[in-house]
Amino acid sequence: MNPFKVFLIYHSHIDIGYTERQEKMAIYQADFIRQAVDCALSPRQAGRDARSKFKFTAEGF
Description:
Structural class: mainly alpha
Order of helices and strands: H
Number of helices: 1
Largest sheet: none
Radius of gyration: 14 Å
Oligomer: single chain
Strand content: under 5%
Distance between the termini: 34 Å
């Protein structure tokens, strides 16, 4: 079990509701953050150098 708690503040300008209903986009965005956290905390990251580690940029689609 990980002893650390990470708080994420997601801040990006997305015209939510422009491409899809707001309710669906909120679910998509929350899922993207979950996937990014899973990738960042993956044990595979430990063996990578700083340039090769997972990076995430909040973008809309």
